[in-house]
Specification:
Layout: E1 2-7, H1 12-29, E2 50-55, E3 58-69, E4 72-79, H2 88-100, E5 107-112, H3 117-126, E6 129-136, H4 146-159, E7 162-170
Parallel strand pairs: 4-5
Antiparallel strand pairs: 1-2, 2-3, 3-4, 5-7, 6-7
């Protein structure tokens, strides 16, 4: 039996299920990013922002919306590799779009790491366009020597960066 659950907040049990899928997919796809589950930073904290796809009461796909403003929603998702290419992400995205239609005009940003071949293929299939690249930096702290502080910042930016692609698609597209 297939079912979709839509939530505005997560529980410890659901968070554990999501993190298990995330961990498995990160190993499979060789990615590092985490799905954003903190709804307190959404511009509307009561909006439904978690979409869960279950098969036989087992979570197999998850989609999260991070919406810090009324006009932009970041979409992150994971589907277990053995359940990909079966339309589960599309069904979750359709549910998410229904939720986002409550707001006037929302641009969708799909978060996808460059190593995720399946993720990039799904985004391409939807017709989304490359919008920007974000970097995740690891900061180890400044030197107390003022002359070395600027060098520390530059070194951090050059050597600690991990690439993250963000693709954009208008809600109506």
């Amino acid at each position: 039996m297939l079912s979709i659950k839509v939530l505005s907040k997560t529980s410890k049990e659901v968070t554990k299920q999501i993190r298990e899928i995330e961990s498995y997919c990160k190993i499979y796809d060789k990615t590092i990013g985490n799905i954003f589950l903190d709804t307190s930073l959404n511009f509307d904290q009561e909006m439904n922002s978690l979409f869960l796809f279950y098969k036989e009461n087992n979570l197999i796909s998850v989609l999260s919306i991070f919406m810090p403003t009324a006009t932009m929603a970041e979409i992150s998702a994971y589907t277990l590799p053995e359940h990909r290419l079966k339309g589960y992400f599309k069904k979750l995205l359709d549910e998410a779009v229904k939720e986002l239609k409550k707001f006037e005009q929302v641009d969708l940003l799909f978060v996808c790491e460059p190593q995720s071949i399946d993720g990039k293929a799904a985004i391409k299939k939807m017709g989304a366009e490359f919008h920007l690249t974000e970097y995740s930096l690891k900061f180890k702290g400044f030197s107390n020597d003022p002359e070395k502080q600027q060098l520390t910042q530059i070194t951090c930016a050059l050597h600690g960066a991990k690439k993250l692609f963000v693709f954009k698609r208008d809600r109506g597209a």
